[in-house]
Amino acid sequence: MQNIQLYVQKHKDRFISELIELLKLPSISADSAYEKDVIKTADKIKESLERAGCDLVEICETPGYPIVFGEKIINPDLPTVLVYGHYDVQPPDPIDLWDSPPFEPIIKKTETHPEGAIFARGACDDKGQMFMHVKALEFMIETGQLPCNVKFMIEGEEEVGSKSLSWFVERNQEKLANDVILISDTGMIANDVPSITTGLRGLSYVEVEITGPNRDLHSGLYGGAVANPINILTKMIASLHDENNYITIPGFYDRVENLSKEERAEMAKAPFSIDAYKKSLDINDVYGEEGYTTNERNSIRPTLDVNGIWGGYTGEGAKTVITSKAYAKISMRLVPNQDWEDITQLFKNHFESIAPKAVAVKVTPHHGGQGYVTPIDNIGYQAASKAYEDSFGKKPIPQRSGGSIPIVSLFEKELKSKTILMGFGLDSDAIHSPNEHFGIWNFLKGIETIPLFYKYYTELK
Ligand code: BES
Ligand code: MN
Ligand code: MN
């Protein structure tokens, strides 16, 4: 496949401008005000798959947002790669912290991206990364080098829990039949340190509500005599970690898989600078579970974090009040073997048990999913590794990520295939944050690497 680099050089301006058009659509799945834009984005992806040369492209309706399905079957006896990605994006807030509007993509140079990066919500997560697969397919079809069959399944609800995709996968096993699933929705260590993601954490996301008195009260007349739901909530939350930052929920660690000394030593070989890490976040020190390194804390260990907390008066000035209710959104990142539904139940039982009688507590589960591990002796991993070796000139490092793509474990259960996570983003690309961006170099490198995966996978299979 020598002409892939030439093809990318020749067409890169068009690839970039097509991606920019896609990034202009605010496909925010969490906010129903953007419903029309989410649907428009699905239509645009359908068109791009048709233009890339798929034989069949469909907008598949679901109880929620549609799933774009496309395929190019060249010979049923050859293997089939199923590409998954998502066209929905996170809400852009806090919008004031963006240096340029989130849905008006612009290209700017950064320290890590001297060739320039596209700044827009969804640039890296996941429109830019998903679009690399569309362009890689275009190249393979256009130049007669597609070595096997391909299916695409691009959803619009990843950022809100992939409910409709679960529904779709359970009903379409045959349509989605494949030998391997390929996803670019993760990251790599650095542009000169290629890595392949071999693990994802699971997730349990809950909302809690603490109710005290039946109305907001004067904090002078009642303060000290009735439970203040905010005081109680913060105390309860604080008790969820002990002095060594272990999670105190009984049974929480029961099924956590402990890595061997050798596996931990292997992990520690990945290049990492704690000083650069601290500097990039403007923090004086790191913080976390005693006995583990930063890279272990953010990948192979489970966590519990408050994502939002509210209640009472937060407007201008002061108001003396004891609020009737206080709330928090809490997520737990889980490691393989921990079952998200069990953990959700453990959290609920524990949180209810630690509430004083003076308040009522309600725990509402949101969504969740299991963790995932890709074995490196799998031929999909090996094909990916060879592909990176060719295009980066270096063997990639296997690396477990702290993020979650809960649907991946469902793919394994329903479609019986392994997922290969070929992510080209960097941690500094600010996914979910203001000023999200994706390096042009990374975008083009992804387009160059993907066809090599198809080639090696078909050869090894
Ligand atoms: N693409 C991310 C997940 C990710 C990013 C994994 C980087 C590894 C490295 C995905 O879109 C995402 O944001 N997932 C959510 C979970 C989902 C249920 C909302 C997450 O990890 O918070
Ligand atoms: Mn994503
Ligand atoms: Mn995301």
Q: How large is the count of helical segments?
A: 12
Q: State the total count of DSSP E strands.
A: 18
Percentage of residues assigned to helices: 25-40%
The SS-based structural class is alpha+beta
Bound molecules: ligand BES, manganese (II) ion
Biggest β-sheet: strands ordered side by side in the sheet: 1-2-6-3-7-17
Terminal-residue CA separation: 18 Å
Q: SSE string, helix = H, strand = E?
A: HHEEEEEHEHEEEEHHHHEEEHEEHEHEEH
- The Cα radius of gyration reads 23 Å
User: Strand content of the residues, in percent?
Assistant: 15-25%
Spans of at least 5 consecutive residues with low confidence: none
Largest sheet: 6 strands, mixed
Gross geometry: globular
Integer average pLDDT:
97
Task: Write a brief caption for the model.
By secondary structure, this protein is α+β, with helices and mostly antiparallel strands. Helices cover 33% and strands 21% of the residues. The mean pLDDT is 97.
Name the descriptors:
single chain, 461 residues, alpha+beta, 6-stranded mixed beta sheet, 18 strands, 33% helix, binds ligand BES, binds manganese (II) ion
Can you describe this structure?
The protein is an alpha+beta fold and 461 residues long. It is 33% helix and 21% strand. It has 12 helices and 18 strands. It has helices spanning 3-23, 35-52, 127-142, 163-171, 229-238, 261-267, 274-281, 294-297, 340-353, 379-392, 407-415, 440-460, and strands spanning 56-60, 67-72, 80-86, 106-108, 117-119, 149-155, 180-183, 195-200, 202-211, 217-218, 303-311, 321-322, 325-334, 360-369, 372-373, 397-400, 419-421, 437-439. The strands form 5 sheets. A 6-stranded mixed beta sheet has the order 1-2-6-3-7-17, with helices on both faces. Strand 4 (106-108) and strand 5 (117-119) form a beta hairpin. Helix 4 packs parallel to helix 11. The longest helix has 21 residues, at 3-23. It is globular and about 80 Å long. 43% of the residues are buried. The model has no long low-confidence stretch (mean pLDDT 97). Bound molecules: ligand BES and manganese (II) ion (2 copies). The site of one manganese (II) ion (MN) has 5 residues, from loops.
